[in-house]
Every structure is written in C-alpha cells, then in structure tokens.
Amino acid sequence: MVRSDSSIPDVEEAKYVRAHLAAMRDAFGDMVTVGGFFSWSLMDSVEWTWGYGKRLGLVRVDYATQERTPKTSALAYRRIIERHAL
After folding, report:
1. How many CB atoms lie within 10 A of CB 44?
2. Where are the domains of the chain?
3. Is pLDDT of 47 > 60?
4. What's the confidence (pLDDT) of residue 5?
5. What span, in angstroms and rounded, lies between the C-alpha atoms of 54 and 46?
6. CA distance to 21, 51, 60, 78, 79, per residue, from 84 (Å)
7. What are the tens digits of pLDDT across the range 12-30?
8. What SS3 state is found at 2?
9. Is the pLDDT of residue 68 over 80?
10. Is the pLDDT at 46 greater than 70, yes or no?
11. Contacts made by residues 55-58, CB under 8 angstroms, sequence distance 24+
C-alpha cells in the first residue's frame, strides 16, 4: 500500500535529484548524448554496510507493515516529470 497524502522529508535528496536533472538538461544543451536518469533506489532496502539502518530510496518502506510512503524527493521528481521542466 502506498500513502499519497503525506511525504517523508528528505530535502537534501530532493536537491540532489533536481541538481542532477539540471546537469542532464545542460548536457542536452551541449549536445551530449544522455542515456537516462536512474535513482539509486526506488524504495528503501537493505544496504551491504548498514543493513536496514540507511534509507536511500525515493519511497520509505515501513518494514513491519510494508506500507510505502513517498519521500519529498519522490514528490519533487514526480512534479518535474509532470511539468516536463525543472
């Protein structure tokens, strides 16, 4: 189940997404071929070094209930995609 009524604040990650998409836009302007943009992880998952302690996904997973909540970075990415603009 995905909750869409709220988000988990991850402001720095949202800035990261915007900055990298802006860099892609600039590369297009310089006629650089870009294969695509890939986020590190769609959802929080186990990390080799930190186990479940680090949450790096665009969507937070409550491991007890499996409920998924979009983070600020996911909502920012969605707005960029919907508007076709930064």
Report:
1. 21
2. 11-29+37-83
3. yes
4. 55
5. 8
6. 11, 36, 25, 10, 8
7. 999 999 999 999 999 999 9
8. strand
9. yes
10. yes
11. 58/13
Decide: 71 and 8 in contact? Cβ < 8 Å. Answer: yes
Mean pLDDT, residues 46-68: 89
Determine contact, residues 3/60, Cβ cutoff 8 Å.
no
User: CA dist 12 to 9, 48, 49, 58, Å?
Assistant: 9, 22, 21, 12
| Residue 16 identity (one-letter amino acid) | Y
Element housing 61 (H / E): strand 59-61
| CA–CA gap between residue 50 and residue 60 (Å, rounded) | 16
- Please state the separation of Cα 22 from the chain's center in Å: 14
What are the backbone angles phi and psi of residue 70, rounded to the nearest 5°?
A: -60, 140
* pTM of structure: 0.80
